[in-house]
Amino acid sequence: MKRSFAFRKVAVAAIALTLGSLSQPQESMAQTINIGPNQYAFRYTLDNDYGLFFNSTSQQYEFRNGSANSIFGFDANTGAMTTNLEFASGSDLRVGPNRYAFRSSVAPNVGLYATNTQLQFRNAAAAPIFAINIADGKFDSDIEFLAGKNLKVAAGNYAIRSATSPNAGLYFGAIDYELRNAAGNPVFRVSSVNGNTVANGSISASGGNSGQWNSAFGWGNHASAGYISSETDPQVGALSLSAVPRWNGTQLVNSALSASDVGVDINSSSATPVFAFNATNASGNPLMSFRKAGLQTAWIQSFGTEFFVSNQQNGNLVFRTNNLNRMTINGDGKIGVNAAPSTDSQIYAVKPEAGFSGAAIEGMVTYAGTSDVTAVRGFSVTAPGYGYGVRGTGGYRGVYGLGEGGDYAGSVYGVQGATSGTGVGTRIGVFGSATGGATNWASYFVGNSYVSGDMRIGTTDGATGYKLSVNGKIICTEARVQAIANWPDYVFEENYALMSLEDLETFLATEKHLPGIPSADELIEAEGFDLGDMHKMTIEKVEELTLYIIAQNKRLLVQDELREKQDATLEKQQEEIDALKAMIHNLVKN
Asked: What are the beta bridge partners of residue 391?
């Protein structure tokens, strides 16, 4: 493989390039240098390792250093760089106005774009999503963070500062967050250790400020300082035993809350408890009770190591988030998730969001080991031969199985079906049916199929001793029978006893079939024939027929030779007869 390099107006100032036999700069409008594989196009005269090299092994052009190592390369077929693009100190990547400095190879509008006034990061629609003014370096767009991302500032730096007064801003010190003034002095600090605040100055509030409050009352009389309304000593009205008092504006009176040594009750206006909490009940376990008309309707209890939530009135137990019912348990113990419980299912879950990635019910095993652990398991044996362990209905797939084998060297199953039992009925490991479509496939496989037992098509009654039984016609573009031992090439051996045509004629007249070929009665009795064996017997008869034809041809050739001799003799005899006739004619005439 050769590559051609065209040089126009080559001018060498500091170094001389050796181009074939040339050692001086050349001036020409166009010159082509043909080089072979793994050769230099040009190199430095003082060090032959420097230069432009065509590497045919890696299919790239390389600028090489004094050690003949590639320091800059690009692919000879695509032009893509094969090395990093680096700049020496003081060198830059310069871009003209209204051009990209760099862009995405798959989305050409995405990249860093330079205008006359700004540097812009552009999206797939070529719209700027982040811009910096060239004149002053200021941002011309908002700064936003994705969820979970933050503005991180090292200690001893400003997180935010004023554009006109650079000392004013939010400063992160060694242990404090500080709001600093124009002189760079902290005016308000919050400790990053305990959250304590320190203010250099007053904190204003209605009726006074923190300085007045502290100097006048030592943080004591809040009302006189103006931070709360004036206080009055509370009056105590008639209180019931165990009642927790409440302030009605003028005095303490009975509230709906009553307490005792063992619990707390909240009473309605009729003084009938609607809520009760007992520190311990008769069993010594805490109990929270909800009541209506004096009757317990629901309760919550911690019982030993168990926690109970109960609805006493055969109603629903509802769990809500965002003011929506998320899980409902009815009086029969049936559960509905994002929906009311179904009468047909013990657990009924609805996934309201769209998307294939989620599921209404998902089971996950986080155990790391080599034991087979079940993520979701269904068991339903109402009686032998009845019950669905798992049943799925889907608009696309009713049941979907994926065996994620990773680097496991053994067999991995996407869907496995197995049956068992001791009865006389039929057991089906996997059953499929399809109806209602323009084309219906009860089973559809992409890949190889393996059946260890018998396969039967169109019938459940298979032929004994055969792996495949088909009740119907078979059509294919090609069929192959595995090679059979003792193929009838032995017919052409010299010692083969070929039946004479006379004996063959006698056999056919007697048996009504070819010798070595089963009769119709034998085929009926055998319930068919083996395709390979029958083909072998047919080839044997064809080869015998070939021998008969060859023998017959030899006899015909002998007969042809005799006939030719006879024809020659007859022709000679005719000539002699004609000569005798002529002699007789002459004698008579004379």
From this structure: none
Residues 6 or more apart in contact with residue 243 via CB below 8 angstroms: 254, 255, 257, 258
What is the C-alpha separation between 487 and 533, in angstroms, rounded?
A: 10
Domain extent, residue 177, equals 153-205
Positive or negative, the CA dihedral 134, 136, 141, 143 is positive
Within a domain: 563: yes
**How confident is the model over 290-324, as pLDDT tens digits?**
777 667 777 777 777 887 787 777 778 888 998 88
Phi, psi of 543 (to 5 degrees): -65, -40
- Average of pLDDT values for 451-468? 85
186 occurs within a structural domain = yes
Q: Are residues 134 and 163 in the same domain?
A: no
Separation of alpha carbons 144 and 152, rounded Å: 13
Based on the fold, state whether residues 69 and 135 are members of the same structural domain. Answer: no
466-486 pLDDT per residue, tens: 888 888 899 989 888 777 788
Is residue 67 located within the same domain as residue 101? no
| Number of Cα atoms under 13 Å in the Cβ half of residue 520 | 3
- Whole-number Cα distances in Å, 519 to 239, 498, 523, 579: 118, 20, 6, 66
In Å, what is the CA distance from 83 to each residue of 40, 71, 105? 19, 7, 17
Residue at 246 is within a domain: no
Residue 81 domain flag: no
Query: Among the listed ranges 57-71, 142-156, 195-209, 233-247, which one has the minimum average pLDDT value?
Result: 195-209
**How far apart are the C-alpha atoms of 129 and 255, rounded to whole Å?**
61
Report yes or no on whether pTM surpasses 0.85.
no
What is the 8-class DSSP label of residue 562? H
Q: Tell me, yes or no, whether 68 and 124 share the same domain.
A: no
Q: Is 574 left (phi over 0), alpha (psi -120 to 50) or beta?
A: alpha
